[in-house]
Structures are given as structure tokens and as C-alpha cells.
Design a protein that fits this description.
The protein has about 300 residues and is mostly helical. It contains 8 helices and no strands. Helix 2 runs antiparallel to helix 3 and helix 7 crosses helix 8. The protein is rod-shaped, with a radius of gyration of 34 Å. The N terminus is likely disordered.
């Protein structure tokens, strides 16, 4: 007994029942969201067993990251398949509807179930992230307020005013004395602060100018009691270390950017595959539901 007529079209006849059944869509979405939460908790428990505070007992960071990424993909696909299948299996029969239209409606219901579940899970994750971010902002505000009070008290108790951070470097250039040795030995704190400002500016720019290198070398030679050649070698060594640290920080930031971009693209691809799986599972569930009903009708 044929369930649907594949060659008859009821053109001009409008059904009183809508093509979209929200009950199965919501049911499948809830099941997919619950499955996602359960599997994510299970994955978190397994992941914690891979990490240990004892050296040598913990998996590498790369291993943990790759395992977590694979697990997230598996969770997305499994939950999408379950939610889509339930959506197609739970919907009611569409009578006098072409088989191609039934297939389209089933896939559309599976896609909507996947979309609703994704929005729910992302909304829950976003709420948790917002709560953590709010706590972090509150803690940072408290720390900033404490630092402001401490800074105000320190400024009130200070005998000498420190130069502004934006113009301190240029102020130091204007006030550099001719007799660097005597000034460095008499005022060690000011010399150290001035060198710190020079190094800080060099770290933000392309390096320390030659005039500043010679000036730092003269201060180091005076304070350390070494020859100008040894002082210059020491300065060059420190500047090389600073440049290496700067390059390492830039490389780490660039690696993080590339990792974030890769994760975003893989996440988007995983979601698209999850949408396809949910749609296909809904079509499969709907076809099995209609085939079972057709078999019951034939038996009767």
C-alpha cells in the first residue's frame, strides 16, 4: 500500500494544518542540548584526569588541546544526530503530501531543532562567561581603586616629583648632565629610574638609539666600577635579552591569534556538519516513522 502519491499534485488546495510542528522541534532541541551538557561534563571529567600538578604525570598542553577539540566535535555531532532523529520520529504524519515535500519538511525540522539547541547551549555558555567576566571586572575595579589610593598616599609622602610617563624620556634627555659619573654615584635611584625609562621606550620602539646606549654604558661603568668596554658589552647583552623577550612575546601572541583563527574556522565547520547531521537524522527518523505506520496499516 503506497503511503504517498508521487504523481498527484493538489494544486490550489491549501491544508489547514501548518507544515511546521514546533513540538517535535522543541523536543529534539531539548534532547540535543541535554546530551551536549552531559557529554561536555563527561569530557571535562576525562580531561581533568589527563592533567596533574605533579611534573611528569600530566599530558602535554598540545595533547590536551587536541583531545578537547576532537571531543567538542564528537559532542556536536552526537547531540545533533540524536536531536534530529527524535525530531523526525516524533512528528505526526503529513497526509496527501508528496514524498519530496515530506523529505524537505523533515530536513527543515531537523535543521530548526539543531539551530534551537545551538542557541540554547551557546546562550548558557555565554551567560557563564558573562558571569565570570563580571566577577573579573569587579575584582579589577577593586584592585584599581586600591592601587589609586596607594598611589595617592605614596605621592603625598614623596619628597621629589617623578616625571610624567609620556614625557619622562624627553625630560631625561634635556636634563642629562655632563659629568655622568658623579651624578650616577650621587643619585643612584634617579639613575636607575632613568635607565628603566630608556629601556622601556626601547622595548616599545625598534630599539635603543646609539646615544642612549652610550649614556647607559657610562652610568653602568660608573656604578659597577668596570671599564667602558665591559659596560658596553653588558648593556648590549641586556638589550639583546630584552629584544629576545619582546620577539618571544610577539611570537606567542601571533601563535595565539593563529590558534584562535583555526579554532573559529574548525568550530564553524563542525557546526555546519552538525546541522547536516541533524537534518539527515530527522529525515531518517521521519521515514522510519512513516514506514512503521505503513507496516501497521498493511497488517491490519
Amino acid at each position: 500500500m503506497a503511503l504517498y502519491s508521487s504523481d498527484v499534485s493538489d494544486v490550489g488546495v491549501e491544508s489547514g494544518r501548518p507544515a511546521l510542528a514546533w513540538g517535535p522541534v522543541i523536543g529534539g532541541a531539548v534532547a540535543a542540548a541535554a546530551t551536549t551538557i552531559i557529554l561536555l561534563l563527561l569530557g571535562s571529567g576525562v580531561g581533568l584526569t589527563m592533567v596533574s600538578p605533579w611534573s611528569g604525570d600530566s599530558a602535554s598542553l598540545a595533547t590536551v588541546g587536541v583531545t578537547a577539540a576532537i571531543w567538542f566535535v564528537v559532542v556536536q555531532w552526537l547531540s545533533s544526530a540524536l536531536g534530529g532523529y527524535l525530531t523526525g520520529r516524533l512528528r505526526t504524519k503529513w497526509a496527501n503530501v508528496h514524498t519530496d515535500e515530506v523529505f524537505f519538511r523533515d530536513t527543515a525540522h531537523g535543521f530548526l531543532s539543531w539551530a534551537l539547541a545551538t542557541v540554547v547551549v551557546v546562550g548558557m555558555a555565554g551567560s557563564a562567561f558573562t558571569g565570570l567576566a563580571g566577577a573579573g571586572v569587579q575584582a579589577a575595579s577593586s584592585a584599581a581603586a586600591t592601587a589609586t589610593v596607594a598611589g595617592t598616599a605614596a605621592a603625598a609622602n614623596s619628597d621629589a616629583a617623578t616625571p610624567d610617563a609620556a614625557t619622562g624620556y624627553f625630560t631625561d634627555i634635556l636634563l642629562r648632565p655632563q659629568d655622568v659619573a658623579s651624578r650616577a654615584q650621587a643619585d643612584d635611584a634617579s639613575a636607575a629610574a632613568e635607565i628603566s625609562r630608556i629601556l622601556m621606550r626601547g622595548a616599545f620602539n625598534d630599539g635603543v638609539p646609539e646615544a642612549d646606549r652610550a649614556y647607559i654604558s657610562s652610568i653602568v661603568a660608573s656604578r659597577a666600577g668596570i671599564s667602558p668596554e665591559e659596560a658596553r658589552a653588558r648593556v648590549d647583552q641586556v638589550l639583546t635579552q630584552i629584544e629576545d623577550a619582546k620577539n618571544a612575546a610577539l611570537k606567542a601572541a601571533d601563535d595565539a591569534r593563529k590558534s584562535a583563527a583555526t579554532a573559529a574556522m574548525l568550530g564553524a565547520l563542525s557546526l555546519l556538519v552538525g546541522a547536516f547531521i541533524a537534518s539527515a537524522a530527522a529525515a531518517l527518523g521521519g521515514r522510519q516513522r512513516d514506514d512503521d505506520e505503513a507496516a501497521v496499516i498493511v497488517e491490519r
